């Protein structure tokens, strides 16, 4: 994961440490053909020179001393496939108002992330576009009143296993279920919190299969081992 930090300088101007050295306005993207070209390629833009983004200057400067005092922190996390530079205008505005702004890059989930040693990564996850849908059978089956999952599932283009677990509630896939059991509380689930955790972890094999390309039998389909688990894909 990469990150960049913006802050207010002593003279009140929003400053961001980065390429260019002290006193130079910061580029939207680090210089280099591939580092600028990858985000353009990811957005399907082919009608401008590949180094276009690396030639755009922002309103921030690099390497200035920060303003003294206490400054609240704001973390900006861009959407899937987008680099932190896509939030530059918002980040600069917040920094100019006295906030410390940390923009983060999700490695392999965005186009054109450049690290301090100079190497650049691209959006590996975009090539596979996998998505696991996993929830309670009481809410998210193809016949449920809430059709948002069914509508979205039809438009997914990658591997898209859709799994529901009978006897669970929404919180069963979080720590709330086992914690509630320990506290003697209940919220309508028919299985124990410990069993819910086991099932959630078992189908977490989705990540090994989609990102490490390892065969994971639990994701092959229904199994007598987990009769409460139903596959809808």
From TrEMBL:
Chain segments carrying region Disordered: 22-44, 214-233
Q: Does the keyword Lipid metabolism apply?
A: yes
Alphabetical keyword list: Hydrolase, Lipid degradation, Lipid metabolism
* Matching InterPro entries: AB_hydrolase_fold (IPR029058)
Lineage: superkingdom: Bacteria
- Ranges in coiled-coil conformation: none
Name the SUPFAM superfamilies for this protein: alpha/beta-Hydrolases (SSF53474)
Pfam families recorded: PAF-AH_p_II (PF03403)
Under what name is this protein listed? Lipase
Species name: Actinoallomurus acaciae
């Amino acid at each position: 994961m990469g990150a960049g930090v913006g802050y207010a300088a002593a003279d009140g101007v929003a400053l961001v440490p980065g390429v260019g050295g002290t006193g130079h306005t910061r580029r939207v993207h680090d210089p280099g053909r591939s580092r600028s070209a990858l985000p353009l390629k990811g957005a399907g833009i082919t009608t401008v020179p590949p180094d276009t983004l690396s030639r755009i200057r922002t309103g921030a400067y690099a390497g200035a001393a920060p303003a003294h005092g206490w400054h609240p922190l704001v973390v900006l996390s861009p959407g899937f496939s987008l680099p932190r530079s896509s939030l530059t205008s918002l980040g600069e505005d917040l920094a100019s108002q006295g906030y410390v702004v940390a923009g983060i890059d999700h490695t392999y989930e965005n186009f054109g992330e450049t690290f301090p040693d100079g190497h650049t990564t691209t959006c590996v996850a975009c090539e596979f576009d996998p998505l696991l849908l996993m929830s309670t059978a009481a809410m998210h089956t193809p016949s449920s009143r809430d059709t948002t999952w069914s509508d979205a599932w039809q438009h997914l283009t990658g591997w898209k296993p859709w799994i529901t677990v009978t006897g669970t509630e929404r919180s069963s896939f979080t720590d709330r279920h086992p914690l509630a059991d320990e506290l003697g509380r209940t919220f309508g689930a028919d299985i124990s919190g410990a069993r819910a955790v086991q099932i959630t972890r078992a189908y977490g094999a989705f990540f090994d299969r989609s990102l490490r390309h390892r065969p994971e039998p639990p994701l092959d389909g229904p199994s007598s081992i987990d009769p409460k688990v139903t596959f809808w894909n």
